[in-house]
Design a protein that fits this description.
3 domains; 5 strands; cell membrane; Heat Shock Protein 90; 525 residues; 16 helices; transmembrane
Amino acid sequence: MTTENQISSNCFSYAFASVLFTISWFCLWSISNYLSPDLLLAALFLPAGLKLAVQVLTPRRFWLLFLSCELAISGWLLSILDSQPHDQLLFLTPFIGYFLILPFSGVWQQLKTYWQRLLALIGLVLVHGMAIGLITMLLSKPMSLPAGYVFSATITAITGGILLVPFCYLLYDYLNKTWLPLTPTLIHQEITIRPSALLWSIGFFTIGLIAELTFLEQLEPLVLLIMLLPNIFMAYRYGWQGGVLAAVMNSILLTSARQLSGAFSSDMELKVFITTQALVGLGLGIAISRQYLLAQQLQMVNSELARELNNKQQLARQLVKVEEDIRKSVARELHDEIGQNITAIQIQAMLADRTTQEDNTKNIAEAIHSLSMRIHRSTRQLLTQLRPQILDELGLENALRQLAQEMKFAERQIDFQLNIGIANHKLDDITAVTLYRIIQELLNNVSKHANATSVHLSLMPGSTFSLELRDNGCGLPQDWRNKGQGLRGIEERVSALGGSFSIQSGNGTRFIVNLPTKIPSSEDN
């Protein structure tokens, strides 16, 4: 863009902004003057709210332009209308808003969420109204103003700001979301304004106006509750945006009722009521929108946690699979290499025993044979601990029965009962191995420490595989978590796989394990 085009574009922007602001300010002043004949109060009502909103939402380079336009139109009004001495304050009040906006703009730029910005705007309106009241009070004696005029000026400035500033921010926010891409920091898109919101507002306005004009005397005791119903409904349905719309429509309704039927005894009563219902609607809207946002954020966090938990469970299953593959590989190597070597040693010892006539050699051969048998038994036990072969060959049920035989429950007069309700081919390898390891550790604890005479083991299938082991032994000590690692290891493994592990100890002990199962597909088989 050339320099001439840029200058031309800037001139057009300034001219358009000045014309639009001047027309809007004058139109709003005309409406305010119709409601309040006082020239100064009319300027402090809706035009003051427009000025605050425009200066907050526009770049700083336009502020002096708006200030000049406001001073110019104020001077023009004073020159053509009959004015009072206090109307000269029209030349002072624009500077109050201007000097308040200067520090406020720095705070405004740092706010990113809608509820922070709305609360900041409401705070700005209240501070502006109090500043107007303070200036009016300081000048009331020199200008011979009545005592109630200070309160009127304060309430008028607050009422106009409460109505127009949030409404202008709503329009700015909606247009910005519609035509411009939003930055990631603007996270207040949880409620989008829809035509239905305007239709509801118009409907409430029509019904309220008809009721106000038709049943004024009958509804007078309930007028506060009736007027707040649209605010509550719109805030609940559309959040802060609905609260802003309801506040504006209710204000029009209340003003119409005042002009048509004299519903309020004075203008101040009307403005106080308008301010009250607007603050209620905005407060409810902000609270509901923020609650909705927090619920969305909580849902996102829960979804993220669920994904993380699922990933960890998948990782845990993979780790268990890798561990079992390593166990299987080591067991195979032990069986193939050490088993063959032990067999060869036994054969060599037998040959030496048969071919020699010397007693010392025979004794050595027998000792070698005895040691090889001990190594063979130890290796078989180690192979069983690493990877029980029967689990691969005959399935979980037979592996558990063999485990019970190795525990020698029958020889120790312990009644062991096994109830398993799932076919072997329906259980994936990781779940089967995990269950076997858990049951192996639990039965080992019962065999060594429980002093039980009855042990019942039940396995119930389903989307969550349930394991229950009950005995009538002495139970667990209170500090069982600090004694030994077996049960803690079971608890950690089950938790990592997304299951649950609980213990009930009293007259005997009851272990309950719930473990998610993965039914293998045809490809896995």
